[in-house]
Amino acid sequence: MPPAAAGGGKRRRSLPWAVIAGWVLLLLVAVPFAGKLEGAKRDTAVDYLPAGADSTQVARLQERLPGGDTIDLVLVFHRDGGLTDADRKAAGGRVAEVAGRHDLVGGTAPRAVPSKDGTTVMYPMALTGLTDEKERADAVKDVRAELASHPEGLTVQVGGPGALSADSQEVFASTDGTLMFATAGVVALLLIITYRSPLLWLVPLGAVGVAAMAAMAIVYGLVQGFDLIVTSMSSSIMTVLVFGAGTDYALLIVSRYREELRRHRAPYDAMRAALRGCGPAVLASSGTVAAGLLCLLAADLNSSSGLGPVGAVGVICALAAMMTLLPAVLVLLGRRVFWPLIPVYGGEPRATRRGFFEAMGGSARRRPGTVLLGGAALLGVLALGVLNLSGDLKQEDTFADKPESVAAVQTLADAYPDSSSQPISVMARTAGADEVLRRARDTEGVVRADTGRSGGGWTEIDVFPRGAPQSAEETATLHALRSGLVRVEGADTLVGGPSAQQLDMKDTNARDRMLVIPLVLIAVLLILAALLRSLVAPLLLVVAVVAVWGAAMGLGGLFFDPVFGFAGVDPGLPLLSFVFLVALGVDYGIFLMHRMREESLRGADVPDAAMTALRTTGGVIASAGLVLAATFAVLATLPMVMLVEMGFVVAVGVLLDTFLVRTYLVTSASVLLKRWVWWPGALFRRTPASPVRAAQDGSAAGSRPEPAVRGG
Q: Which of 31, 44, 42, 43 is nearest to 218 (CA)?
């Protein structure tokens, strides 16, 4: 054997083992840190609020007041036919017991506030001395346990912002394991159906699992090193991204590898050719997703800006595992991993799937104008559904399943229609607190105002509005307080509390959309232009995914309230769904357009190149779209309305993008544009009869690239 051949054979045997050994070592280091991420998550109000908003500053100041952060609770006692004397006595006794077991702001038991109709009595109280989230959640559980014993027929509920926060944390804590196993199960099922092999599906699924562990460990390191905010929401979305994007990359690589095995005798050589052929598309695909997510760093909303790097880490880890670990394992397992559909060296692929996508593309080629106009009209009609979207989601409506704190809100709203049990929190410099208190009491819409804790030069004032939480009347009172109290000289007044937080989140989300959306579009366009050496093709792809986003939001308007019964739309949904659909949707455009460019480099005209690209990549795009849509659809099974809405919009958008936009609209637009699709690049400036050498345009050196995917 020649020395070069001997050296090549040795490398074929040793490199895959070295790659696997490296990942095993990484996994041994990562697993302990990945397990610590759960304890590093932060789900306090501040972690979801705008960084610069008044309500955020109020929440931070409250944490620094004596006794640590407080939690505001409302103990609610209700009987439909009216409270009896025994009910009132039992309620007073239970409240006194609760007050004796906990540290309260003011140090005395809360007073009873009976309703005018005699059905309800409430006891607002603020617990203090609770320094972290776990202590506050445990305190709410303790209060509920202490109120468990009561007369038959008397309904006892613990509500208020503190109870709502505790219920939210409990719901999020229950989602992590459910989400991980459900997502893995969905991906496994789809891979089994796609590969029709009892063994092959385990390889990409295992690689994705390793990527997820690595991502969690790296995110934990970022939390420790850079104080990165990781919420339960961002952690859940990262899991979905790792499984969805990682599986998409695996489908593309495995499909190309299967084809190369028919051209190369050695699996090592086949994999090297496969990575050389589809590697640029995979790298550009992951680059667009990561870049789009990192644009969220420009958002002022803490939960959005924190999601950016968390999601980007997940995508990059998925890319690393799919480009190294997955190929190494496949090479070592050899052809037998595809059993029973083993690709034979020198064999021909089956043509059934190719015929299906060729037929779909044929209709787009025969009548490109009609197909393009019809598809665009359909997306436009679907987008009209946004007119049916409800208003912003209220805090108590954020749960798909109603917890006790939300039930308490409804009870209070019915029993106390003329007043609110939820205070507006006002922070003022102690020197000017008396004047702030006086002006707060004189503000229109205020029922009463009381001085709370003081410390560090600040005083907390609880202001009770007449309007119900997040009603138009309460919002008007909030604006009046902010515009009036700021005039108190030297008080540095800040107005916060749960309703002010929701108002600030709405305003900040609107500002973030105006900033982040253009950044995402610019980042995606630059990456596409670099990959495709064109300006028209990237614009075509971006316009297509923006149209898909509009249609998906429109479908949300047709389903959220009429079908799902949701009371509103989360203010962060438009921005986050845009980032995901544009960044992820462009993936499939990259797979298609990159294949089109390969064919154009070989001398084919654009219509022929478009048909070949659709025929050869249609199968992998369809499979990848189904996997990604299914992984996001798993979010719709979780008990948080925001995640259900997010899962629905992204899943529906991915399906529209996969089976309508990529298959018909992009193909028909390319047929109509012809060589203009490559303007102003080199492919635009030549005729099909004078092919450009692949090496001149950055194609891989050596033999001609082969089709990315063929059926079978």
A: 31
pLDDT of residue 589: 83
Encoded amino acid at 597, one letter: R
For residues 479 and 504, what is the distance between their CA atoms, to the nearest angstrom? 11
* Architecture in CATH of 54-159: 2-Layer Sandwich (3.30)
* DSSP annotation string for 437-489: HHHHHHSTTEEEEEEEEEETTEEEEEEEESSPTTSHHHHHHHHHHHHHHTTST
Per-residue pLDDT tens for 567-589?
A: 889 889 999 999 999 888 887 88
Distance CA 311, CA 243 (A): 12
Is beta strand 113-114 parallel, antiparallel or unpaired with respect to 120-127?
A: antiparallel
Beta strands in 40-189 (DSSP E): 71-78, 113-114, 120-127, 155-159
Half-sphere exposure of 257 (CA within 13 A, CB side): 29
> Residues 247-260: what's their mean pLDDT?
90
Q: How many CA atoms lie within 13 A of 135 on its CB side?
A: 13
Please list the residues that pair with 464 across neighbouring strands.
Answer: 448
User: Is residue 406 within 8 Å of residue 396, measured between CB atoms?
Assistant: yes
For 424-496, which CATH class?
alpha beta
Q: Which residue has the tokens 């092999």?
A: 197
Residue pair 582/521 in contact by the 8 Å Cβ criterion: yes
Question: Cα(378)–Cα(194) distance, rounded to whole angstroms?
Answer: 29
The two tokens of residue 439 are 């002006």
Across all residues in the chain, what is the average pLDDT?
86
Note the pLDDT of residue 41.
84
CB contact at 8 A, 588 and 412:
no
pLDDT above 90 covers a percentage of the chain that reads 46
Determine the pLDDT at residue 352: 43
Amino acid (1-letter code) at residue 346: G
- Answer whether 54-159 and 424-496 agree in fold: yes
- In degrees rounded to 5, what are phi and psi of residue 686? -125, 165
Q: Where does the pLDDT of residue 481 fall: very low under 50, low under 70, confident under 90, or very high at 90 and above?
A: very high
Domain ranges of the chain: 54-159, 168-389+503-693, 424-496
What's the whole-number mean pLDDT along residues 478-497? 94
C-alpha span between 463 and 447 (Å, rounded): 8
In eight-state DSSP terms, residue 660 is: I
Which residues have CB under 8 Å from 39's CB, separation 6+? none
* Residue, of 391 and 20, whose pLDDT is higher: 20
